[in-house]
Amino acid sequence: MTEKQIPIITIDGPSGSGKGTICQLLATKLGFHYLDSGALYRLLALAAKRHRVALDNIESLAVLAGHMDISFNMNKDGTPSKVLLEGEDVSLLIRNESVGSDASLVAGYPEVRAALLQRQRAFAVAPGLVADGRDMGTVVFPDADAKIFLTASPEERAERRYKQLIDKGESVSLAALVEQVQKRDERDMNRTVSPLVPADNAVVLDSSQMTIDEVLHSGLEIAIRNGIQPQQ
Ligand code: C5P
Question: Which H or E run includes 219?
């Protein structure tokens, strides 16, 4: 299978829309690989902190983005088990909302995005890929077979993020989180490079009133309608 023939489904959308959960479930159902592109921006933010690279030092950030030593360990079913930075398990650390805010800052630099482009495209290997992010369908995989833009109301998204962080043992206030997430989304939607917008040919799904099963069912339907075949 050449790179062009690798089946790819992209799911873009704002934080808390449920992308991560749906992408992982969809990847498992289809027997495909999973790319969590947000983790790359989060890893860069963390690596910058550790190497004392200032978040406005664009040149050094771009070099770090291209060379940082990262790996994604996967479970047998294709879901991620661990995210490693220089061999250290930072899976929980990168989920912190302050790392998320820093990630959104560094993600605004075109030089950083360019340095991460090939690293993301390298995930497109047989039998197929489910790619999760903000610009998967617009920039990274513009020729993807199926594209979904997953969203939800701001209240619902803040509530979901809150539950996720509490479950991970972080102590956050809902009000502070609503503000942080809103700020991050505004920055992601209004930046000049790869802003968060649905691709022209994306199906927009609002998950506010949907269960996870319903979103998964819709995602599978969209994939199959676009010629994607689950692995046997
Ligand atoms: O998806 P997640 O919340 O982990 O992403 C963290 C941040 O990384 C986002 O707020 C966004 O600024 C950035 N990001 C991006 N493009 C992607 C994925 C994430 O700019 N494809």
Answer: helix 212-225
Terminal CA-to-CA distance of the chain, rounded, Å?
Answer: 17
144: in domain = yes
Residue 18: which CATH number? 3.40.50.300
Residues 104-139 have pLDDT tens digits of: 999 999 999 999 999 999 999 999 999 999 999 999
User: Which amino acid is it at 145?
Assistant: D
Residue 1 in any domain: the answer is no
- Which domain range does residue 167 map to? 7-222
- How many structural domains comprise the chain? 1
How far, in Å, is the centroid of ligand 1 from the Cα of 15?
Answer: 8
Q: How far is the CA of 134 from the centre of ligand 1 (A)?
A: 6
The Å distance, Cα 222 to ligand 1 centre, comes to 23
For residue 231, being part of any structural domain is answered with: no
0.85 surpassed by pTM: yes
The mean pLDDT value for 195-211 works out to 94
Pocket test for ligand 1, best of 23, 134, 135, 138 (most atoms within 8 A of CB): 134
H or E element that contains 110: helix 110-121
Predicted confidence (pLDDT) per residue in 138-162, tens digit: 999 999 999 999 999 888 888 888 8
Look at residue 103 in the predicted model and tell me its pLDDT.
96
Whether 144 contacts 136, CB under 8 Å: yes
In a domain, 2, yes or no: no
